[in-house]
């Protein structure tokens, strides 16, 4: 226990999550006392080691901090100001942490009353929740706000209680605002999930198949992933609806008072009211599925219980029997097609490409492709032709237009249509091809996952067609995808699943825009709001992918806004032909249409946020704030008391691995002493070094001054020599460290990739941009550069504008995603936080490292380095871990 953390913390009222807070405080060395009338809770609390109090007044007596749980504003009078209220016993300088999400205006009134009536004026609010992301996985997360002086007082207690702390300095009330934005998203996503499942059932796709595929595609959301199984199993009771109706109603009232339109939330609210109205008051058995069956007239339950098959297994079976493919034609080398076609080139297929836009052809030629002048030319002698143009009219024209593909394709060839088109269009196309006498086969193979995954061959593909057609294209589909699903039902079935995915994806982009714009109107930092939501139930694949574009105000089209005018247009056409009313999808469609009408159709689809910005005057774009260095450093948890340098030296004595540091410029070698530096790396000189059995030696590569190709080649060369030298000296084991720049400029990930390509995959990559003397700090994953008394996010400094190594992200996890072009998403990067290091010390860091998933290319950013002692602590655990 940390002895400098002594102090008493009181709780007025407990709930189950408060027990976790109390347990964390007790572990950090605080004494904890509580007033609670519900016996089971107080029994658990006593078991933890807490002390029971007879009244709120007693719970507040002698405490340094008082955590007051209030579920309704009416309780404030009694619990805080009443005869036996908490204020009576509270010391003057104690901090009140209001664990509640009552409306911001109530919290502000409470603060005013405390300031006016009493001398006690330290209040912060705290929204306590469980992290829903893979990263936080149910751990406690707190969003808190208040005046700077109150926050400074509260911070040690808040940090002690949670794994992730978000602090909004300024006014109280941010916690409840964030909660509103999160609930807005959850409400919209719930209705969208219900509409998606209903549409899927109407077009004949098994709901569990929809669920399994879309939870691995861009239509996924936390709500879809977590609520749909309960819906399909009949586990969600109708009461769930009334809770939502009430919460969403409150948010709409707040928005109304701010004259702020929330069209998606308004329609979701109406839908949930409609659902509630379908249940008679005393029917406790009605499930959400049954209610929705009545609302939309779709047999969800029967469909969910119908016999099903495994589309991934079908894909594996087809892949085993697939025929060889030599030549591929590729028409439509746009945002998606270019990446897919060049990935096929890298996978050793011969690819002939055609696009109506000539500059693309030049790029394709430079990437090693064969360039053609018409669809017919790109179809000559190919086994498979892939079409990735934008829409049905373009697909029609490349297949049947002037110099079209059909006339030139060899008899028996296969066409893969990967554009997003309506199911009806593909099934009619198949019929037309059958009627032609060339025995051309068609595979309906829409894709999901976006531009980055297209270029990496890790798309989700939902394919359908005859077995013969699927077998003749299996190898190509497998090369383009990480998840390949075969949908039964022939051409049109794949596009049916894609249509359902698009309903969700489109709604999620629009809901992300609505949520962020509303957040901006509520006055919350949009960057921080984004961060909190990505760890909460309101998150979605599209929220995480598209909101960063809104925050950067960068509408370079990865997927054009007009694509959703088209895709939600398909949804709205299908819903009227299947007679299933899809309200939320239709409103989202109208929002994209509004964006297109404003002239933003060719920009990125995240530009739909401008519809809200233009209407209401809010600005979603947001920079990370510049911080006041002294204030931030003072507010962090206290340092781990011990400097484990002696432990490191001891561990190092017993460690047989030689540390070989490849330094990309001379500033690294200038900061070490008593360590040899090699400026050349012949096998002979490396053997000579290894024979000395040093603990460490440097090789000055100077690779920062080279092009990335040359730097990679150099690192490979050195690693090969190291390998040869090490194998010729007996009992030599070594580890490679890449030393680079603390302002993040250098050949990342190229040098790491080069080292791995020679030395083999590593269990993890550790990124640790430590340079205390140079004023580099990493706080909550954001890397800062000190500029006198300010901490400036690295992405906003001159360093980030470097012509060769420029970058935008200051958050190290996002920086990894940016630098790896999406190959390593931010969500796969684990951080070692200052909280973990300072509160848990070496043991906690060691445990975190040992529990990392053993997946190659997981990158771990150290975000903990504030003092030299801390870098020692971290090194200590690393050395132990490496052993
Ligand atoms: N962008 C995404 O993230 C994404 C993801 C999944 C699916 N999709 C779907 O994939 C398809 C392609 O999307 P995109 O974003 O690559 O679109 P895009 O507009 O960037 O690319 C389409 C390409 O087709 C070319 N083209 C149009 N007519 C042509 C013709 N007659 N002959 C030859 N080339 C022609 C265009 O010049 C363009 O390069 C769309 O149907 C889209 O809905 C897109
Ligand atoms: O599933 C996806 O990748 C997306 O929805 C695209 O089709 C459109 O951006």
From TrEMBL:
Residues 173-291, 492-612 form the 3-hydroxyisobutyrate dehydrogenase-like NAD-binding domain. The lineage of its organism: Eukaryota, Viridiplantae, Streptophyta, Embryophyta, Tracheophyta. It comes from Castanea mollissima (Chinese chestnut). The keyword tRNA-binding does not apply. SUPFAM superfamilies: 6-phosphogluconate dehydrogenase C-terminal domain-like, NAD(P)-binding Rossmann-fold domains, YgbK-like. Signal peptide: none annotated. Keywords: Carbohydrate metabolism. InterPro entries: 3-OH-isobutyrate_DH-rel_CS (IPR002204), 4-carb_acid_sugar_kinase_N (IPR010737), 4-carb_acid_sugar_kinase_N_sf (IPR037051), 6-PGluconate_DH-like_C_sf (IPR008927), 6PGD_dom2 (IPR013328), 6PGDH_NADP-bd (IPR006115), HIBADH-like_NADP-bd (IPR029154), LtnD (IPR050006). This is L-threonate dehydrogenase. GO terms for molecular function: NAD binding; NADP binding; oxidoreductase activity, acting on the CH-OH group of donors, NAD or NADP as acceptor. It is an enzyme of class 1 (oxidoreductase). Its EC number is 1.1.1.411. Belongs to the HIBADH-related family. L-threonate dehydrogenase subfamily. It comes from the Eukaryota. Catalyzes oxidation of L-threonate to 2-oxo-tetronate. Can use either NAD(+) or NADP(+) as cosubstrate, with a preference for NAD(+). It catalyses: L-threonate + NAD(+) = 2-dehydro-L-erythronate + NADH + H(+). It holds the Pfam family SBD_N. Residues 659-854 form the Four-carbon acid sugar kinase N-terminal domain. Residues 19-166, 327-485 form the 6-phosphogluconate dehydrogenase NADP-binding domain.
């Amino acid at each position: 226990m940390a002895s400098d953390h002594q102090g008493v913390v009181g709780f007025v009222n407990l709930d189950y999550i408060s027990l976790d807070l109390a347990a964390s405080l007790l572990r950090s060395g605080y004494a904890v006392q509580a007033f609670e009338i519900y016996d089971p809770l107080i029994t658990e609390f006593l078991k933890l080691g807490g002390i029971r109090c007879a009244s709120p007044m007693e719970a507040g007596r002698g405490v340094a901090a008082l955590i007051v749980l209030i579920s309704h504003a009416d309780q404030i009078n009694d619990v805080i100001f009443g005869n036996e209220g908490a204020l009576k016993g509270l010391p003057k300088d104690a901090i009140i942490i209001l664990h509640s999400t009552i409306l911001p205006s109530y919290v502000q009134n409470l603060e005013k009353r405390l300031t006016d009536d009493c001398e006690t004026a330290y209040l912060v609010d705290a929204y306590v929740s469980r992290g829903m992301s893979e990263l936080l996985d149910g751990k406690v997360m707190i969003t808190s706000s208040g005046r700077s002086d109150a926050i400074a007082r509260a911070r040690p207690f808040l940090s002690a209680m949670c794994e992730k702390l978000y602090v909004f300095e300024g006014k109280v009330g941010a916690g409840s605002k964030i909660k509103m934005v999160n609930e807005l998203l959850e409400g919209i996503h719930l209705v969208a999930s219900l509409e998606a499942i209903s549409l899927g059932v109407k077009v004949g796709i098994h709901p569990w198949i929809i669920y399994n595929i879309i939870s691995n595609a861009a239509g996924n959301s936390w709500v879809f992933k977590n609520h749909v199984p309960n819906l399909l199993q009949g586990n969600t009771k109708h009461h769930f609806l009334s809770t939502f109706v009430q919460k969403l109603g409150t948010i709409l009232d707040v928005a109304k008072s701010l004259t702020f339109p929330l069209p998606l939330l308004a329609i979701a609210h109406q839908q949930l009211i409609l659902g509630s109205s379908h249940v008679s008051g005393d029917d406790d058995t009605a499930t959400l599925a049954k209610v929705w069956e009545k609302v939309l007239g779709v047999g969800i339950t029967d469909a969910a219980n119908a016999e099903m098959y495994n589309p991934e297994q079908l894909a594996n079976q087809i892949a085993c029997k697939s025929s060889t493919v030599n030549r591929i034609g590729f028409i439509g080398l746009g945002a998606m097609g270019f990446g897919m076609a060049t990935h096929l080139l890298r996978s050793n297929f011969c690819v002939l490409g055609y696009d109506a836009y000539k500059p693309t052809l030049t790029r394709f030629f430079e990437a090693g492709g064969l360039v053609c002048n018409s669809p017919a030319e790109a179809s000559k002698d190919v086994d498979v032709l892939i079409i990735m143009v934008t829409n049905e009219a373009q697909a029609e024209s490349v297949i049947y237009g002037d110099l079209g593909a059909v006339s030139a394709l060899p008899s028996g060839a296969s066409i893969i249509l990967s554009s997003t088109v309506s199911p009806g269009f593909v099934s009619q196309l198949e019929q037309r091809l059958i009627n032609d006498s060339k025995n051309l086969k068609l595979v309906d193979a829409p894709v999901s996952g976006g531009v980055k995954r297209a270029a990496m061959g890790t798309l989700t593909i939902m394919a359908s067609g005859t077995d013969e057609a699927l077998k003749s294209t299996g190898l190509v589909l497998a090369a383009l995808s990480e998840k390949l699903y075969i949908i039964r039902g022939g051409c049109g079935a794949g596009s049916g699943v894609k249509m359902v995915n698009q309903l969700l994806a489109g709604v999620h982009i629009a809901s992300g825009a609505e949520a962020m714009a509303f957040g901006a109107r509520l006055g919350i930092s949009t960057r921080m709001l984004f961060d909190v939501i990505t760890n909460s139930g309101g998150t979605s694949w599209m929220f995480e992918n598209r909101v960063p574009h809104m925050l950067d105000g960068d509408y370079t089209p990865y997927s054009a806004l007009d694509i959703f005018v088209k895709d939600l247009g398909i949804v709205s056409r299908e819903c009227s032909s299947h007679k299933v009313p899809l309200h939320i999808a239709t409103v989202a469609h109208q929002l994209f249409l509004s964006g297109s009408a404003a002239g933003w159709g060719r920009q990125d689809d995240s530009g739909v946020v401008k519809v809200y910005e233009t209407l209401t005057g809010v600005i979603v774009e947001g920079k990370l704030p510049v911080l006041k260095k002294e204030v931030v450093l003072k507010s962090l948890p206290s340092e781990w008391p011990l400097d484990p340098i002696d432990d490191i030296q001891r561990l190092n004595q017993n460690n047989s691995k030689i540390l070989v540091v490849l330094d990309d410029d001379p500033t690294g070698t200038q900061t070490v002493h008593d360590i040899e530096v090699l400026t050349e790396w012949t096998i002979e000189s490396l053997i000579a070094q290894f024979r000395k059995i040093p603990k460490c030696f440097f090789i000055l590569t100077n690779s920062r001054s080279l092009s990335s190709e040359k730097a990679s080649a150099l690192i490979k060369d050195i690693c090969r020599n190291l390998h040869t030298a090490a194998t010729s000296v007996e009992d030599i084991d070594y580890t490679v460290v890449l030393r680079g720049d603390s302002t993040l400029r250098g050949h990342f990930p190229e040098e790491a990739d080069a080292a791995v390509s020679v030395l083999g995959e590593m269990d993890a990559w550790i990124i640790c941009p430590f340079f205390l003397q140079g004023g580099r700090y990493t706080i909550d994953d954001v890397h800062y550069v000190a500029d006198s008394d300010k901490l400036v996010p690295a992405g906003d400094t001159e360093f980030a504008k470097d012509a060769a190594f420029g970058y935008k992200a200051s958050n190290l996890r996002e920086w990894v995603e940016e630098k790896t072009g999406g190959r390593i998403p931010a969500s796969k990067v684990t951080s070692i936080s200052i909280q973990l290091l300072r509160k848990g010390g070496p043991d906690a860091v060691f445990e975190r490292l040992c529990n990392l998933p053993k997946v190659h290319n997981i990158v771990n950013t150290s975000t903990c380095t504030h003092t030299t002692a801390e870098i020692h602590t971290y090194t200590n655990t690393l050395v132990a871990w490496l052993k």
